[in-house]
Design brief:
This protein is of the alpha/beta class. Helices cover 42% and strands 13% of the residues. It has eight helices and eight strands; from the N terminus they run H-H-H-E-E-H-E-H-E-H-E-E-H-E-E-H. Strands 1, 2, 3, 4, 5, 6, 7 and 8 form an eight-stranded mixed β-sheet that branches. Strand 3, helix 5 and strand 4 form a beta-alpha-beta unit. The protein is globular and about 60 Å long. The N terminus is likely disordered. It is found in: Membrane. This is 1-acyl-sn-glycerol-3-phosphate acyltransferase. InterPro entries: Plipid/glycerol_acylTrfase (IPR002123). One of its GO terms (biological process) is lipid metabolic process.
Length: 294
Amino acid sequence: MNETRVSRIDPPRDGTTWREGEAPELPRPRGIAGWWRVIRRGLPAILVLLIGVILILPMRGIEKLFHGPRRPWSGPHVQLVCRLVLLCIGLPWRREGQALRGPGAIVANHSSWLDILTMNAALPVFFVSKAEVHGWPGINILTAVTNTHFVIRDPKFARAQAEEFAARIRAGHRLLFFPEGTSTDGRRVLPFKPTLFQGFLDPELPKDLAIQPMSVAYHAPAGSDPRFYGWWGDMGLADHLLAVLSAPRQGWVEVVLHPPVPVVGETRKTLAAKTRESVRNGLDTVLLESDNRA
């Protein structure tokens, strides 16, 4: 990889941090046209989410009766709901690469609250998130629909959570992790935290377990800041939501699935390094191609 590409994706090497740069000013809805776009996109999206939540509750009850802990119906249902919400918002997307077959999990870069929609639209997944997210207004609706796996960062719960994690993997759930531990501006991949990969080494997990890296690239609307879809730092959720809904034109999203990394013979550090390299190279390639087209 040449130096130009590394400098854009990796954190600076001069002792500063990428967060020290100013976040882009979020555009506010302007005039009647701006607020009309918010209403025209936001109301149908909310309606789709509400209908999706209402339908999935009895579906999961019936699903549990016939399939136990597996999710053969509700996974595709959530995928359809997320695709419809993106359609309401007017944000197109596309997927490249083949989904993992067999037992495993997915790791990806984290840029925005939009990740819940775009990643689930690409393939049925179950997110792994910190427990605090469960109480965030608005986001908690999305986590309920997607059956998010919440993690409490307390060592005394580590064994119980590892057992629950292993049970979901054995049930065929595609758990999706954000090993960066935080969201970014969508233009870089931060170092992956090796401790988050410890759960993949549990002896109770299937021996043929693999981890599939995923790169998600957000392309801003023409003329907008390249970081337009990134939700990070001190950005308010409501402000960012209004900025996306009121945009005169939307950009688009690209989801790239990379070859899975078998867990056998790896350590948490090597898993973190190998999967991050795939995610980083994938994002770098997509952004470079986009910059060249522009």
